[in-house]
Amino acid sequence: MNEPRFYELRWLDAAGAVTGSLAIDLLNAPSPLADVVERIAGAAACAATDRRLRTRLVPAPAAGAPVRPVTDYLWGDGAMNGERLRRHLTAVAAGQRPHRFTLRTGVPAEGCDLVGRQGVVADACALLSGGKSLHLMAPRRYGKTSLLRAIAEELRRRQRPVVLLEVESLDRIGTLAVQLAAQALRDGVDSLRVLPGLGAWPPADAAPSAVMSARDGLLEQIRPRPEAFLAEVAGGLADAGAAVLLDEFSRFLFGALAGDERELRRGLARLRGGREGGRGPDLVVAGSSGLRKLIAWHDLEAALGDLEPLALEPLSPQEAAVLVEELFYGHDRPPTQQGVHAVLDAVGVPIPYFLQALVHHALAEHAREIIPSVGPAPPVTPATVDRAYRRRLLDAEGNEFFRPFRLRERGYPDALRPAAAAVLARLAVATGLVSRDRLRAACPGASDAQFETLLAWLHEDYDVGAEGAELFLRSKVLRERWALREAWLTEI
Ligand SMILES: Nc1ncnc2c1ncn2[C@@H]1O[C@H](COP(=O)(O)OP(=O)(O)OP(=O)(O)O)[C@@H](O)[C@H]1O
Ligand SMILES: [Mg+2]
Fold this sequence. Notes:
By secondary structure, the protein is an alpha/beta fold. The protein is built from 21 helices and twelve strands. The strands form three sheets. A five-stranded parallel beta sheet has the order 6-7-8-5-9, with helices on both faces. Helix 5 runs parallel beside helix 7, helix 12 (about 315-330) crosses helix 13 and helix 13 runs parallel beside helix 15 (about 380-395). Adenosine-5'-triphosphate (ATP) binds near residues 109 and 323.
């Protein structure tokens, strides 16, 4: 009766008040128990150097203390995972609850599910508060949308108005201006209501159909001079001290450049300059480094040349390992260290989307494997990860995960699709770098200018990297998948 079953860790402030605590349920701890307790204590001591830590064995946890099973701090093979315990203890000491990760394959990572990136968020906020405008630069699926949301959250936390708008499906200055105004009003920048055409804008809780018809009406009203309205909106947003975050900005430019290029240039000048003699809001646009080439080729430097590049790199190996490990724990499958390494090795350059996708598949593969077995589930092994990678990611089952990439080339002009296929096919089967000249020779139907545009697109859409005059597919997963399965690379 009343055997001590919980190992309780409490932090006290100088006055002896408890500032944070965690109770570890020792039920199902591997024996000998004393050994486990000693190792927990050791890990805890490392995390608590500057705090007053008290530990004790208790029969029941204190009310309100987060309780974690001891298996949360063991690897799948029973070895102690001291690093994870230290991460949780650091969070608890800072007044947070240990975070349980959820798979977010394909949807932006938010809150604590966003691993790393604190440095980029801090840099972005510091640059913005210094009056700079930014180009958040990364190829597809590196986490741009996730990061824009994190930046927006941080700016709002600092009481700064933020307007976050996805502009992929917009291709005219008029629609950009109207959507920006509509989003700003939805995001609470009510001072815009003094602008012509916005006085009678539906309130925040209006039915979507009311907002839609207001948008259509406004679009019609500003049709003769859309850039003049954009100047008003930009000026109003600058006056309100708002930061404007535009997601998928390269997509907007690709679309808008296919239309009236002069209108685009005038409109962008107003977005940045606001009303005559004034200024526009601080801006963050997201897009790959291909965006810079677009800006240079199409002579958009006057409006966009000052954007400070802020590169979003793949995760660091440590961040990638934490993400993979936490995703397994979050889904109640403590991994082995070898299982985590197998995911990292299979994915290669740690692009968050592929890490999420492979953990997702490894969990599904593992669930299929353990159905016939009884007793505690065996850990996810490298063999399981390997099967998941080949069968579920590279093979037909992976189609869904590559859809965001595959659909991109469908938007390319017909004349460029065969060239895109030729370039990607060659990069996919290459064992190393491929010279631009070789790739150029594989596209006899494209002009030099078309070839350059194509490379900018491929950089944006398929993460084609460059080292001097040589190119490569950065993602091992894309390379292997494209080499094995992408029929469109040869069929068109
Ligand atoms: N730092 C991170 N930690 C955990 N997961 C992440 C991180 N960054 C991105 N992801 C995951 O990677 C995937 C892509 O993220 P996101 O949609 O933000 O990228 P993106 O660059 O905007 O993609 P796209 O180019 O398709 O618009 C999502 O599944 C997201 O949950
Ligand atoms: Mg995105």
